[in-house]
């Protein structure tokens, strides 16, 4: 059953609170109904300096937005890029109220192999025990993780376009009102949330860079184009529902990498960030503008379209080998962006010709045509951007509204 009102969600959380500990073992990890409702891609690579901010005897409170709902959940935690094992001393899930606060009587403990605490080895990913509870669709959840000591560098999605919270010292995982010591844009350690859903539902993975990550949208407001797309699917009764997950990383590239906060190149992270998620049937790929623009800033010349296309072909082959339909999305205009060049524009047009005309993708979404200025096609429509590269809320909504839903029927 899907609960849409805050009051109904809160009441249902309250009713199952006493049974949650026992219910957590009711669903096995091999249940075929598990589907990934939310995900993020770890972007941070270990820094080259010693000035990395550390969490020490503090509670992280991470705010995430579901797509599909379900009747049980589990979280995934990862220490992919950490430099030491990390101990999770306590963990919980609740419905967000506002900011760092959670709705009263909705907090439920999350356990690991029946225990409140677990050590996350360096380089590892772990699943929590299933927690039997109603998970509302299109709703903000609050995941609290208590870290009882200082564990060094924490794997994170660095630029989430979501305000998350670090508490004052102590275990505050069950606190309704978190005593906040700091705010952070990072989703630390948390990489995915799966739910059990009884419907015939699969997952659409949206894969890309900052434009998929939602940079330029309003903070903590779920205005990324994948969020708009999920709401559109859920509001359209003519199409089946899908989970929609976001595998975008700001600054990411198809072929190379530079800054530690921009993550591993897509070739390296694809298995972890897409293929490892549950029930992915489709993916939308929109990436390559950073290969062109950042290369121009670094070497004075953009990366050639042929190299980006070679990367696309690798991703296409790997997706299709897993039975995933891969839809190519054209690169949007970037004239007057900080790394624009006329040579880069030539490469962007060549990449877009491949996406539109090669026939190698299973479908095409022409985001370029959606957001470009008709009077100057090299430039994004001024009403859709603040920096001539990233769409704003209106631009992201226009992108989502323009997607042909027949690609997913």
UniProtKB/TrEMBL annotation:
Q: What is this protein called?
A: GDSL family lipase
Please give the Pfam families that the UniProt record associates with this protein: Lipase_GDSL_2
Which CDD domains does the UniProt entry name for this protein?
XynE_like
Instruction: Name the domain of life.
Output: Bacteria
Q: Which InterPro entries match?
A: GDSL_Rv0518-like (IPR053140), SGNH_hydro (IPR013830), SGNH_hydro_sf (IPR036514)
Q: Domain SGNH hydrolase-type esterase: where?
A: 207-398
Show which residues constitute the signal peptide: 1-26
Keyword Signal appears in the UniProt entry: yes
Q: Under the GO molecular function aspect, what terms does this record hold? A: hydrolase activity, acting on ester bonds
Query: From which lineage does this chain's organism come?
Result: Bacteria, Pseudomonadati, Pseudomonadota, Gammaproteobacteria, OMG group
Organism this protein belongs to: OM182 bacterium MED-G28
Q: Which UniProt keywords apply?
A: Signal
């Amino acid at each position: 059953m899907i609960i849409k009102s805050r009051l109904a969600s809160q009441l249902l959380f309250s009713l199952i609170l006493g049974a949650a500990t026992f219910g957590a073992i009711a669903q096995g990890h091999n249940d075929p109904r598990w589907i990934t409702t939310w995900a993020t891609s770890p972007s941070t690579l270990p820094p080259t300096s010693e000035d990395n901010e550390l969490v020490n005897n503090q509670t992280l409170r991470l705010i995430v937005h579901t797509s599909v709902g379900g009747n049980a959940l589990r979280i995934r935690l990862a220490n992919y890029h950490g430099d030491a094992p990390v101990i999770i001393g306590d963990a919980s899930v609740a419905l967000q109220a506002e900011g760092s606060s959670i709705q009263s009587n909705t907090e439920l403990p999350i356990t690991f192999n029946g225990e409140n605490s677990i050590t996350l080895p360096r380089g590892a990913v772990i699943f929590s025990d299933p927690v039997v509870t109603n998970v509302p669709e299109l709703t903000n959840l609050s995941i609290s993780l208590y870290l009882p000591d200082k564990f060094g560098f924490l794997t994170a999605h660095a630029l989430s376009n979501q305000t998350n919270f670090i508490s004052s010292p102590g275990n505050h995982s069950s606190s309704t009102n978190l005593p906040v010591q700091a705010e952070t844009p990072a989703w630390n350690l948390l990489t995915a949330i799966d739910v059990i859903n009884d419907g015939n539902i699969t997952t659409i993975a949206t894969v890309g860079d900052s434009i998929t990550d939602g940079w330029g949208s309003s903070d903590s407001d779920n205005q990324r184009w994948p969020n708009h797309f999920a709401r559109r699917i859920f509001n359209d009764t003519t199409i089946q529902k899908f989970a929609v997950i976001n595998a975008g990383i700001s600054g990411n590239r198809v072929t190379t990498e530079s800054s530690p906060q921009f993550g591993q190149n897509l070739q390296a992270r694809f298995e972890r960030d897409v293929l490892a998620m549950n029930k992915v049937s489709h993916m939308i790929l929109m990436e390559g503008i950073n290969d062109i623009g950042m290369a121009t800033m670094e070497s004075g010349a953009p990366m050639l379209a042929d190299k980006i296309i070679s990367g696309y072909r690798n991703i296409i082959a790997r997706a299709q080998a897993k039975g995933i339909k891969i839809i190519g999305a054209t690169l949007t205009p970037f004239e007057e962006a900080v790394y624009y060049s006329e040579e880069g524009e030539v490469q962007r047009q060549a990449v877009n010709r491949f996406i539109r005309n090669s026939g190698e993708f299973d479908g095409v979404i022409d985001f370029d045509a959606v957001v470009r200025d008709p009077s100057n096609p090299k430039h994004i429509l001024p009403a859709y951007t603040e920096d001539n590269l990233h769409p704003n809320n209106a631009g992201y909504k226009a992108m989502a509204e323009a997607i042909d839903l027949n690609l997913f029927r």
